[in-house]
Structure formats: C-alpha cells, structure tokens
Amino acid sequence: MTASGSGHGLALERATGTVPALNPRTTIDTVQDALSALAGRYRTDEVLTAVRHIPVREARFVPMPSWVRPELATAYRGKGIEQLFSHQGAAAELARSGKNFVVVTPTASGKTLCYNLPVLNAILEDADTRALYLFPTKALAQDQLSELHDLATRLDDCFGVFTYDGDTPSDARKAVRERGHVILTNPDMLHTGILPHHTKWTRVFENLKYVVLDELHTYRGVFGSHLANVLRRLARIAEFYGSKPRFICCSATIANPGELAAQLIEREVEVVEENGAPSAEKLFVFYNPPMVNRNLGIRRSYLNETTRVAKELLARKLQTIVFANSRLHTEVLLTYLQQANRPQPGQPEPVRGYRGGYLPGERREIERGLREGRVRGVVATNALELGIDIGSLDAAVMAGYAGSIASTWQRAGRAGRRSGASCAVLVASSAPLDQFIVQHPDYFFGRSPEHAYVQPDNLEILVNHLKCAAFELPLSPDERIGSVDLQQVCERLAEAGYLHRSGGNWHWVQQAYPADTVSLRSVTSDNFVIIHVTGENEGEPEVIGEVDFSSALTTVHPKAIYIHQGQQYHVERLDFEQRKAYVKRVNVDYFTDAIRYTQVRVLEIAEEERIAGPAARAHGDVLVRSQVVGFKKIKFFTNENVGAGKLELPENEMHTTSFWITLERGLLAGLPFALSDRQSGIFGLLYALESMATLLLMCDRRDLGTAVGERPASPGIETDWQEFTTAMNDPSQMKEFFEPNLYLYDAYPGGIGFSEPLFRVHDLLLRRTRELIAACPCEQGCPSCVGPVGEKSERAKEAALKILEQLCA
Amino acid sequence: MLDRFWRVKALQKPLNGAARVSNSTLPKDFDKGESAAGEPRGFLANIPEGAGRLAELLGAAPLRNEFGEHLALRKWFSDVADGVKTDCSPLGHGLADERMDASALRLLLPDAAEEAGDPRQWLFLDTETTGIMGGSGTYAFMVGIAWWDAGGLEVEQFFMRDHSEEHALLVTLAERMAERRVLVTFNGKSFDWPLLETRYRMTRTLRPPAPRAHLDFLHPARNLWRLRIGSVRLQELERHVLGWNRGADVASEFIPEIYFDFLRGGAPEPLVPIFLHNQMDLRGLAALSSRIVSLLAEADLAGKDGFELFGLSRICERRGDATRARKHYEQSLAADELPAETDRVARHSLARLAKREGDHSKARDLWEGMLGNSREGFEAYEQLAIYYERYIREPQRAASISRDALTELQRAKRLGTIARARYQQIRARFEHRLARLERKAGRLPLEPIVEESPAQAAESDGRDKKRSSHARIG
Fold first, then answer.
1. Which region among A125-134, B135-144, B452-461 has the lowest average model confidence (pLDDT)?
2. Which residue among A45, B310, B351, B373 is least enclosed by CB atoms within 10 Å?
C-alpha cells in the first residue's frame, strides 16, 4: 500500500504511468453526464437521492520531528516524504511520549506511517526493540510486509520484518522468532500459535515495546470481545517477561474509536482524529433503483442497475471498480459487464473479476493491470476493500450497501485515492438499511453514528480465555482479569477438572490444548458443520461451512434452504447429536423462514426508566427459550408464502442480555386501530427497530434476536410462549398483548455487549426508526420498513408509526 | 436469582478430554484409596494426601534443596529386565568404560564434541508429562535420568507431588546435568528436551542447562529397524531388537490422567506403574543405545542381520560415508533376507553410489538385475538407457532398452499393476527419450552427441554432466 507516499510521489506515478490522466474538471463533468443518462426518464430526485460534491482538501503538513533518527528521515525522504501530515505528526509525538493512542483516518491518509515511524525509530535507537503488528486478516499482513520491506531496504536491512501466520513454514518459524524485529500476524495466530508457546518467543516478549492494532473497527462484537481477552493474555505474558508494550491503533471512522480502543486494550487511550492528508474532489452519488410496484415497494433489480451505472461510466473511459456483497453477485455482475465490454481483437479482457478463491498469481496480475490501466474495470468483493494496492481509479460503484458506513467509505476510497477527481456511486438494494441510507444522506455524510461495541466480560468468552491463560501461565490469586471474581471461576474450573490449585496458583490439568478449542470468531466452539453431499458424481462429501449452535436450528433445520456464498442448498438431514447438517445443492425460487416459538424471561433488570408513550425502556439479563416448530417457504422477490412444514426439534435455552421497550397499557389503549392492526403494528415496529439497531451497532441482523412478550409482573416470572418468526408473523393467530415488551436481545450466550448501548441510545434508535418508516415510499409496509405485507395487516405501517410518534413525543 | 455460571458451556466438564482410566489397566487396589475430593485442603501446602503413601510404596524420599522439595527415587540395575534372560548384553557391559569409536560417533552426530564419545559423560533422560502437545501448560511431572555406574545402570527419578515442587525439581535436574554433560534420549530432541527448556524458561530465574552434546537415538533406530519391525516405539524395539518383553506396563495415554487424579486427591497406587514405566524406558534406552553404538562401531558386520545392515547403510549414506554405505549395502544384499521391495531399494542405492563413484560397470550389473515393473525397475531401465547412450555411446542399445521399458509398461498397464498417472508419466519420459534416440541413431556417425534437453540434463547428477560435456568436446 502506498498510503504513506506524499502527493508528490503519486502525482509523478500518474504522469509517467500509462494511465491517461483525465483532468479533474473533466471527470466531474463526465460523471454528471453519465448521471443524467442514467436518471433518464425517471424523476431525478427519486433515483439520484444524493449527489454530493466533496471538495478538494489541502494537505496540512508538520515538519519531521527532530528526534527522528537521521537514517530513518533519509529513508522516508527517499520515498518522497519530507514532512508529515498533521495527524502523522500528532501520532509520532504521542508515541514518543509513551501514550497509547488510536488514529482515526480515512483511506489513503498515510496511516501506516503513524505506526511505522515510531516503531522503526525505536528499533534504530535500540536494536533489541520488538514490535507485534496485528491485522484482522492474513492478506492485510502480507500487504504491509512489502511496505516494511521497502523501508528495510532503504535502511540497509538493519531490522527484520516477517509475517507469522498459518502459512509460515515450520522450518522458517524459528528464524522469525529470533530475527524478527517487527512481526506481522493476526489475532488467531497470536491466540493459538504464539501465546501458548511464549517460551519460544522469550526475546520478543522481553523486548516488546509496541503492539499495533490496525483496522481496529473490525474488532467488534464477538471477534472484538475475543480479541480483548487475547490482549489481556498478551499483557499477562508481556508482564511475565518484564515488558509493558504500548498500543498504537488505527481505525476507520466510527463514532467511538477511543471507547473501543480503551475497551480492547484496557488502558487509557488518546484519540487522533484530525486528518491532515489531502484529498481530491469527489462526487458521491446515491442511486436508488426506480420503483416498479409502488404498492409492494418493489424496485428494479439493483444488480441490473449496478450494471447500467458501471456501463455508463466505463463507456466514458472511466476506470471503474464495482463492489458486490457476495461472490455470486461478483460473478453475475462480471458476466453482464464483460458482455457489454468485449475486448478489442488481440487485447486482454478489459473487465476482470477479483475475489477470494482466485489464485494469487491471477490476483497479482489483475492488480498490476489496474495500476497500469490495462484493466479498465474490476468487479470485486470486499477482498479489494482494504489494503491491496491497485492504484487510483476514477470511479467506484457499490452494488448494495456494504453493511457499515465505515466500509462504504473504504470502498468509495478505492477511487481517487489522493489526487485527481473521482466518483463513488452507491446503488441501493431494497434491504431496509440500504433504503434508509439512500433516503437519509445526511445520516451517511454527517458525523459517523456507527458505534463498535465489545463485551470482553461475556462469561462464555472470558472463561474460555481464562483456560487459555492458565495454560500459558498459572493464574495467581492476585490477578485481575475482567470483571469476574477470578477465584470463583477458577474454583468452578477446578471442579470441572480443568484447573488445580497448588502453591497458591491455579494450574492447567488437562491433556488438551485449550486454545485449539476456542475460535475467535464464535462465542462457543459448539458449532454445526455443514456437509455438502450432492450426488455421487460430484465427489466426496465436503464441509462447506459452520453455523453457531444458536442459529443452527433456524438456518439448517431439515428441509431448510441454506444459502452459502450465494448458492442454495437444501438441508437433507440434521444430526443434532453429532452437530452435522447434510445439504444438497439446489436451485429453487424460494427461501425458508423458520417458525420459532420464542420466550423471553427477564432474570434481572439492570436499569429501567419510564419514557414517553407511556412506556418504559430497560436492559438486563434474560433467559431466551426457543424452539423451531416449523418453517415457511417464501418466494423470492414477491415474498409470497408458497408452503410450510412442521418440524420436531429440541428446545434451546440461552442466557443472554437484552434491551427492551415496554408499551404500557395506556399507550396501546389509546391507539385508534383494531386489535389485529395494533398487533401487526407492534411486530412491524420491532422489525424496523431491529434494522435500525443493526445499523447503529455495526452488526449483522443475525447478531440480534427479537421477541415480543407480555410484560412480566416481576422478573423471573414466565410468560407464555409466543410465536415469532424473523420476517413474518400472523397476528390473527396471536393472543392480545396488553403491556408487551419488545425485546432486542444479543443472539449470543452471555450477551455480546449490545444491550446496554441500545439502552443508552434509545432516543436515537426510536427517532431513526421513525425516519426509516416515515420515509419509505411503500404504502402498507414492505421489507424495507416494517417487513413484508404478506400476512400482516394493511395498517401495520401506520400503526407502527403511530406508536413511534407516541414514544418520541 | 440464578447463578450466572450455571449455563456457561466453557465451565462444563470436558466431553472427551478426560479419558477415564479403565480399571483393567490399573492395579487391583486402585479403587481402595479414599478420595479427598471436595474436602477442603490447605491452600499453600497443597501436596496431595497420597504423597506420603506413594513414598512408602516406592521407597522414595523427599529431596530438598534451597528451592523446596520434590520426591526422588534411586535404583541400580544390572540388566535390562528383571530376572528375565535377554539376548542382549547386560547393561553397561563393554560400552560403559571405553570411549566410543570416533567414526561411529560421527555417524550419530556429525559435529559432536569429543566428549560425546565418552559414555561416562552420558546422561540418559526420559520424562513423563501431562500432555503430548507441548506448549507452556504441559508439565514434565516426572523426570527420570540414568547413567552407567559400577557395571550397571543407575536410575534416578524426580517427581513433583504438586506443581509447586517443579522449581526444586528443575534445580536438582540441572545439578545432575552439570555432572554429566552429554544428554542421551529417545525422541528427546523434538519432545522431552524442548519441553524441559520451556519449563526452565517458565521459572524466569533458572537457565536451561546446556549439555555439550545431545544424542538422540530415535532416528538411528528408525533407520535400523523400522523396516523390519514397522513401529519404532521403544517397547517394540525392546521386544524385537533386545528380545525382552516388558510385560505389564501402563499405556502412555493414561499417564496424564493418572497424575491428575493423584493431584485431585486420588490414590497414589496408580502412580507406581508410571515410575516403573519410566525406569523401563530408561533401561530400554540405555540398552538400545549400546546396541546401536556397537552396530555403528563394528567394522566387520558380514553375516549379520540384513535389515540392520541395510539400515546401517542408510545412516552411512546420509552422513556422507559412501564407502561404508556401499559395503553395508553389499553385505545386506549378501544376507539374502531382505524382502523384494527393500532388496530393490538396496540395489538401487548401491547402483547410485557406484555410478557416483564412476564404477559404471558395477552400476550396470545392478540395473540389469533390477529391470521390471517397479519404481526401481523403471528407474533401472532409464539409468541403463542413459548408460548406453552416454558412456558406451550406443544409442541403438539405449533405444532398445527404452522400447523394452515401454513394453514392460504396457504389460503393467494390462495387468493393472500401475497407477494411471504414474503410467502416463513414465510413458511420456520413455517416449520422449526414444524419439530423441531414434533421431540421433539416424544421424550417427556425423553428429556423435546432440545437445541435451534440460530434462535430460536434470536427470543426471553433476559428475555425469561433466562427463557428457567432455564427450561433446571430444
């Protein structure tokens, strides 16, 4: 990545490269021209919901600090860097003064210098210094390697830099441990490969001065909660060897980078937010595919529309990257675009695909083609979202919202990284979040509302890491790890046969290796594997994926349609005992939606408060009991119910945390709706609340569970079972709610830290949900707002809005 | 209010981790020891209750140093097995007092310090551990060492009755290792020793002892006996090489659980077989090392076991002693007891060594005897073809050999005795060779040697290349 090059270096590259540099004015004009062609006969303001012009921003420089070693300053000068951007300077000074800090900067703002400069300077001052860089993926570590190699060459190879991950050959590992000053790895490898073998890393741990966490915003939810515990273990081991590393973090723009960093590293953190890097002008466009059926809220296919947008841009000689959210969509879009852009005779294909699964050689060839301008267009998954150097393109087109504002900006940043005008077009799908975003541009362009949350003290996660910690180093009674009573947990672990107390400390007494059984990407390792067994002719049974225990029953129950990387599979058999689901590849025009009875029992209310409505909001511990009793087959696009089936599956219980809103009797009684409309309104409201919550929490829909239940007279009292399906429900079958609780619970055992934040931001949650529903142009509700009309009452949308109006009063 | 721990999966008992000890493998009175589980015990001095009885059972005594205590047991053995007639020499006989032959030592460890050849400096070592995965949470709860003494083997075992005794145990071990500086193990290079180094590092104060040399007998044993015995587990080697059957022995996979049970207050009796197991491992290792050393040292081994001779030649070949390797290959073939497959490997290696030394006619004779449908058989066809083409300069003869090879290959295919991919690969090679040879035969004698294809150049070693380039000049 050339992120730390100065504008000068890049401009030179453009001038001497084969890329025909368009003058900025022309690019903007060309895009404007393309846009009017696209909007065509539609009402422009309905299709182009936002056309924002982001002006040029000049660089703000500060001089290279005087304490930077001359040879390092020379090395950077050799790369065209004479002075620092202001945020780089701020970072360097913070590092110099021994602070932990997080740098929040957009793509291409030279963030790698923020950590490389202080780290290398420390190594040059003291050759014993060691640093550990953590990247969320192996690919990103590989990418940083080349930048560091370049610096190493300029510094006469006076320091060693290596990646250490699953791909590192075992005969090379010893050399990495002994000769690496900077070790690039990932959390998973730190967890299973480094910490349990820390005695082999004595030199690194004794001299560990810096730990770098890049792409900090990706460490949220389950992954982040695990990472926080891995870092607790790292700190313990470092302390054992007498070192106390400083943390340098880099994050994309989110609302709470400092809070997230502080939660992850459990230290005080300074935040560097002001960005001194220059940026070129950019046109950011929201494109909402035109309505074809206003009643049902159906729009033209966003994939076809994405193709149209990309074709218009490519036709105007703009080098374009198209992002799709799945591999399948990548292939579909690629097919469309290649048909429309045939290569000249004897020339290579001008439009290429790029995603995981392509061979490394092929990828490098495409990257080079993009840099040199031979490849005019590329259709990619998020594989190209981060890091990888593909030069600066003219346009980025996104087929569907990337799921978070941070990654949308990262994708948009692939066009026009620092100089030359560029454009980014977001083509919205009909998913609620997409629709909300394109209809509320200010939400997107304003200060980021996205929060990243972690729950390092999730018991399930914490206890698993305590096991790993005990393996690494006996636990001493004086230690403090998280908020648990360590003695109590250790005693429980001893009873279960994991630990033994002797000499005051708790020692690991199992043959098994605890880190091996703990995956950082799920709460428990109790997963179902999905085994693909299509016909004998197609080869051996093949494991295609895993699902968490908690979502297995709703996603891989018998006869379910399981969608994996865009391919549909029919679940033939679910072996509950062995935790295996056997699937066959199919091609059908429906998906399945499990009918689940869910019951939420409030165990303990952490906080509760009356709000307008009259209503109340609360959060606390809950027990969720659920059972999948059947499923519905839902037709794609029309969302018609085309069949159903009954299932007999075991009941599942989960202790987790939840946020809930209680609609009090007075509120419901005052609504001018019939019972079924009211009930529909409640479910519609919950559907929309869930959509909005996932947006605020930067999480996935499957990370949250929802349920409606009568408010219990007091905590611990059971309420009746309620039917609740994720996308549909049939209120006519429901018994009446008098004072319903609308639950949004963490869909992970022990909770993953969403409930309390939701309680805190409930105001924003309600206001945004109201905007989401109000701005939706459908008439009676659609999947973009209160859920599909289907079996819901016709006045569901109206009722939901009315309730919100009361709640926001 | 529910206990917030009750549902935490990570706190539930492991499903399969704790392999329960099956009673049949344990002494009869295993269940008699009353368990103290659940009863409160002192926190700091948490030595399991059974420790006292364990010392009585074994006749062991606590050993104290400035860092604390641990249990120690010392015993002298005159023979590998107790009261059993074995066909190997008594422990210590012959080897214990004299230095090892320098060439034999080089075969074991090419760059060994000179004192490594002095068996009086040898310290045999074997550990019993809480797991086989390594990592900083795996403990060596028992360390057994042994050395030659008074015409027999002195065995000393250190045992930590509790994790808190580890430090003292490691200190004692370091003292013993300072007395005898050559470490001798079986698979200790990759397992026992790195694990102990980890244990020393975990103390943060003790440096891992630095032996002058580390002799590990796993690899030589593998070379010498895997072919005949299949397994190179120490017990199997004892049975087949030393002619001694251990009899009752605790299965290794139960050892960690037995120790954990003891820690949790279980009876001490099941630990006794582990002490015996560790002693047997050390005695077996000592006897086996004598056997291997004498095999490596003996100059004239003609008439000995063909398998051992074959293994010996592998060791010599790998250590670069080609002359001795050739000799042993020849001896192993002369013993005429190798199975067909190994016999071919031996001939093939011998031919390769002969060729490398320029003894082409010897190599040719070997190849001619090996032609046929086997990996080495086809290799022999190829080598013969190369021989006739390059050294004898008879391309017609080389072509005819290539044709024979193709016929053989066809037959193998018809009989279904060759894998398809392999068939195609070999066929392509010979067809390519044949085509070239026929071209060449047609042009002779105008152009004696044509340029080699890269594939052809790659298949001959450096010496051949030099020769063929000379031929070209000629």
1. B452-461
2. A45
How, if at all, do strands A182-185 and A130-134 pair?
A: parallel
Boundaries of domain holding A335: 21-53+280-445
Rounded Cα–Cα distance for residues B37 and B29 (Å): 18
> Model pTM?
0.80
B402: distance to nearest CA of chain A, Å?
A: 38
Kindly report the nearest CA distance between residue A240 and chain B, in angstroms.
Answer: 8
Q: Residue A415's pLDDT is what?
A: 84
Instruction: Locate the chain B residue with the closest alpha carbon to A511.
Output: B131
- Domain end among A445, A477, A505: A445
Clarify whether residues B121 and B244 are in a common domain: yes
- The pLDDT tens digits for A381-438 are 877 766 666 777 889 999 998 878 888 888 888 887 555 788 999 999 877 778 888 8
> Three-state SS string across A225-250, please?
HHHHHHHHHHHHHHHHCCCCCEEEEE
For residues A306 and A416, membership in a common domain is answered with: yes
Instruction: Kindly list the residues from chain A whose CB atom is less than 8 angstroms away from the CB atom of residue B4.
Output: 459, 621, 655
Alpha-carbon gap: A273 to the closest alpha carbon of chain B (Å): 39
Per-residue pLDDT tens for A107-119?
778 889 999 999 9
Tally of domains within chain B: 3
Q: Given an 8 Å threshold on Cβ–Cβ distance, is A496 in contact with B44?
A: no
- Name the pLDDT band for B122 (thresholds 50, 70, 90): very high
Tokens of A14: 């453009």
Nearest residue of chain B to residue A203 (CA atoms): B201
CB contact under 8 A, A470 and B137: yes
| A284 and A261 part of one domain | no
Q: Do A471 and B137 touch (CB under 8 A)?
A: yes
pLDDT at B147 over 70: yes
**Amino acid identity at B83:** G
- Does one domain contain both B139 and B166? yes
Burial class of residue A233 in the structure, from the number of CB atoms within 10 Å of its CB (0-12 exposed, 13-18 middle, 19+ buried): buried
Same domain, B348 and B377: no
Contact B132/A at CB under 8 A: yes
Question: Closest residue of B to A467, CA-based?
Answer: B10
For residue A512, give the nearest of B14, B163, B204 by CB distance. Answer: B14
**Does B375 share its domain with B276?**
no
Residues in B touching A470 (Cβ below 8 Å): 137
Q: Cβ separation of A511 and B163 shorter than 8 Å?
A: no
Q: What is d(CA B310, CA B301) in angstroms, rounded to the nearest whole number?
A: 11
Asked if residue B39 is part of any domain, the answer here is: no
Instruction: Give percent of chain A with pLDDT exceeding 90.
Output: 38
Nearest by Cα to B127 from B75, B172, B191: B191
- Rounded Cα distance between A622 and A659, Å, is 9
- Closest-CA residue of B relative to A751 is B8
Return the percentage of chain B with pLDDT > 90, whole number.
30
How far is A208 from B163, CA to CA, in rounded Å? 29
Higher pLDDT, A247 or B121: A247
Flag whether A1 is in a domain.
no
Higher pLDDT, A674 or A185: A185
Complex ipTM > 0.90: no
Same domain, B256 and B346: no
Whether residues B196 and B325 share a domain: the answer is: no
